[in-house]
Amino acid sequence: MRKFAAVLVIIACAFTMLVAGGKKETKEPEKKDYSGYTIRIYSNSNSTERTTWLINEAKKAGFTISIDDNSVISGDTAAVQAANEKKDGDIIFGLNETRWGQLINGQYENIKLVDYVPSWGGDVGDFKFDNKAYGLVIQNVLMLYRTDDLGTKGNKVHFKHWADIVDCGYTWYRQNKVGGTTNANINSAMLYAFTDPKSPAGGISIDGWKTLWKYCANGKFSSDDKYKYGFDPLNAGDVAVSTFYSSSLAGKIDSAAEGSKNPLKGWDKPENWALVDIDDGTYYIAEYIGILNKAGRTDEQTKAVKAFAEWFGSGEVQAKWSDEFDSYPCNTEAQKKVYGDNIPAIYKIKNFALSTVAGTSMNYAEYVAAHSAEWTNIMTNLGFYWKDAASAANEPNWDTVDWATMTQKK
After folding, report:
1. CATH class name, domain 38-138+285-347
2. Mean pLDDT of all residues in the chain?
3. Which residue pairs, CB below 8 angstroms and at least 24 apart, start in 182-187?
4. For residues 252 and 254, what is the distance between their CA atoms, to the nearest angstrom?
5. What global pTM score does this model have?
6. Do the domains at 38-138+285-347 and 140-283+351-407 have one common CATH topology?
7. Residue 190 in contact with residue 205, Cβ under 8 Å?
8. What is the CATH number of domain 140-283+351-407?
């Protein structure tokens, strides 16, 4: 009996060991605490709500970060200039393809990016600058119209190009200044049909500038910021067609009745508005994240910075960012978490920012980056986008414009 019992014990022990050895380890790896190093971040995606949320969530994840809100740094120009001048940054995120192209091409002497590919870098599609910067949030500019009696009265609006708005037969809104990221993106959409690499007018045909002038001259605007963005005049019924940016549209429509007696209705199923059907598509931009090559940073500190980029750009965190701030993530895993198979129509529009410009090796986003300073100079020097109707500039004599002077840098 003893011998038999001993055999049973041996068998039982062997079975226990076999089961234990066959079990898959489910214990999650221990999360490392990187909070001992303060990661300095520069961004234009820095509303007070965003910076507060990011600081708190990063702290929970084991990071200490420093980021200015938009009361300190407002806009992508200010963010990049501050990073270039202070030379103390670890991370830069936000901006758009135009600005990222300038950073990567060395336009800012003190901004250099670390070669780095995050583990989620393959989840952002074409929204990447290989080994340098990877997409976080997708944004595009939209052209909308009212379908009710304050708009087209049920008629559908179809354009070949964005610039066809100038001959649409309806009233439209136009912004009242040259500057601003949204304004610049709308201008880029308007000029897309007129690219001409041989043109001395900033790589845009003269007909393109004439058309943009017509857009300004005949568009409705406000000199007192009554219409800060294009949603407001459309929502009020003051124009039939307008422009706006994608990330805030859902929230604006949800609260449209607060600012109008005749509000736009229906986000998932538009009731009295629609997207203009434009053959070219629309101009997308993406916000990216890159790691700055900061002098004097130790290898261990750089590990903390890379770990932050891994965390922030991950599908899980970008899904939370999207939910919190009504943005659309580049990360396809985040897209699935937020939308499943119900991708909003505004993000299914064809993207011409990545289309190759005929006669060049550049896509349109790169072409914009190469010429944006010239375009700003042209619009500023010739008087596009007057804010006060009483001081509207006279249309230039296009045959006598000195384009070399108009496009030169300061």
Report:
1. alpha beta
2. 90
3. 182/141, 182/229, 182/245, 183/385, 184/98, 184/372, 184/376, 185/96, 185/141, 185/245, 185/283, 185/285, 186/141, 186/243, 187/212, 187/375, 187/379
4. 5
5. 0.79
6. yes
7. no
8. 3.40.190.10
